[in-house]
Design a protein that fits this description.
307 residues, Conserved hypothetical protein from pyrococcus furiosus pfu- 392566-001, ParB domain, 6-stranded mixed sheet, 54% helix, elongated
């Protein structure tokens, strides 16, 4: 039978609750003035599950999970901030009671779902909140992991990342490229661009039918597009090293940008060229230093020759 908390334990729990509420006030103030741009809301596991069509999970056992990798919740995502500060004033008594147990005896393991690097609380939201407020770095948890063909979520996931992953899932469902080319990784970082690729493949399919004089399925066209257009262009992008100028972007991002601006680029260069050649031309231009850059390099070279 659990003993009643001592006055000291109650005082400690109350102080931690008050600290959590002060942190909540300050975090809202900082966000109001644009001083904190980190995601502030927990992710809804139900929304992630629906958009990524998560169906089967595998039990991974009892683990120590980093608290900063817990980014969402099953059903309680409106009750806490992204850092699990309590949002509901009426939760004070339950929160304080759990804090008292944390002080006296410690807490039992929580239950988590894992999707990529991100975890979602199935059971134990208040325990996560209390543990973070007490300064813990990890928490003991029973973990069930969901696998998805588009990869999981990052620990910094926001709604845009969920949308992108959902679009990637729809793209693979339509093209079947993950079955034809298991090694493919067409990773895009901004929402709305996978549908652009789907449209490009559809136009490519129609061109193949016109050239060959026979019907082509969308999956056949997708495989030909991947082999004869996308892969060749990506090879050029990788060899050029142009992505060093665009941290956080991918080969697919660069490909989509060139494809989207194809007509403007053709007008700029004054000639018609294949998409692969256009990618190479753009990469070459991006690599070429500006006049100021050329002066800096020249001066640096002169300085090195004097040493």
């Amino acid at each position: 039978m659990t003993e009643d908390p001592t006055p000291l334990t109650q005082t400690v729990a109350l102080e931690f609750w008050n600290q959590a509420r002060r942190k909540l006030f300050l975090s809202r103030l900082f966000r109001t003035f644009g001083l904190n741009r980190q995601p502030s809301q927990l992710l809804s596991f139900e929304e992630v599950q629906e958009k990524l069509r998560l169906n089967q999970n595998a039990y991974r056992g009892l683990q120590q999970v980093p608290l900063d990798q817990i980014v969402g919740s099953v059903g309680r995502y409106n009750d806490f901030t992204r850092t699990f500060l309590p949002l509901v004033e009426n939760d004070r008594w339950r929160w304080r009671r759990i804090a008292e147990l944390q002080t006296d005896t410690g807490l039992p393991p929580i239950e988590l779902y894992k999707v990529g690097e991100a975890y979602f609380v199935k059971d134990g939201n208040h325990r996560v909140s209390v543990a973070r407020q007490f300064g813990a770095k990890t928490i003991e948890a029973y973990v069930w992991e969901y696998q998805t063909p588009v990869g999981g979520l990052s620990t910094h996931a926001d709604i845009d990342e969920i949308i992108v992953k959902a679009e990637y899932r729809a793209f693979l469902d339509r093209t079947k490229l993950d079955l034809a080319y298991p090694e493919q990784r067409i990773i895009i970082t901004e929402p709305g661009n996978y549908p652009n690729l789907e449209l490009e493949i559809e136009l490519y399919r129609k061109n193949l039918e016109r050239i060959d004089g026979e019907d082509r399925s969308y999956q056949e066209a997708a495989a030909a597009w991947y082999d004869l257009m996308y892969s060749l262009a990506v090879d050029v992008i990788r060899e050029s090293g142009v992505l060093k100028q665009f941290p956080g972007r991918t080969e697919a991002d660069f490909y989509v940008w060139v494809s989207r601006h194809r007509q403007q680029l053709a007008d700029r260069y004054g000639e018609r060229m294949s998409l692969k050649d256009m990618v190479a031309r753009v990469a070459e231009d991006r690599q070429r230093p500006s006049p100021v850059g050329r002066v800096v390099r020249s001066v640096a070279g002169a300085m090195r020759s004097l040493t």
